[in-house]
Design goal:
Strand order of the largest sheet: 3-1-2-4
Radius of gyration: 29 Å
Length: 111
């Protein structure tokens, strides 16, 4: 059983349609490969998680609000990476320690 048309004009039409469809499939494959390559690149070049985070207050000149450990899920979006000595100093200066990640306990600075 032959499911292809018997005449040349319809075969040429089918060939054109298949070529166009193949081009669309190849373009989609290239787009997906490009997105996956970009995702891999971003994952490979992501900056390391900081050890300590300072959560900043709202507005220009607002004082910092909390100190967090680097991987704390409760840290807000306004933040800055700090080093261990800065975290200890900020906690000693009265900046609040996050109650979820307890950086004061990890740093040995208890109120």
């Amino acid at each position: 059983m032959n499911d292809l048309p018997p005449d040349l004009p319809r075969l040429r039409t089918l060939e054109t349609w298949l070529a166009m469809t193949l081009d669309r499939v190849r373009a989609q494959i290239a787009a997906v490969e490009s997105r996956e390559a970009e995702k891999r690149y971003r994952e490979e070049h992501r900056p390391p998680t900081p050890d300590w985070i300072l959560e900043l207050g709202i507005g220009v000149g607002a004082p910092p609000s909390e100190v967090h450990t680097g991987g704390c899920y409760a840290a807000g979006k306004r933040r800055r990476a700090i080093d261990r000595d800065q975290a200890r100093q900020l906690l000693a200066d009265g900046i609040r320690a996050c109650t979820h990640c307890r950086p004061d306990s990890e740093l040995g600075v208890l109120e």
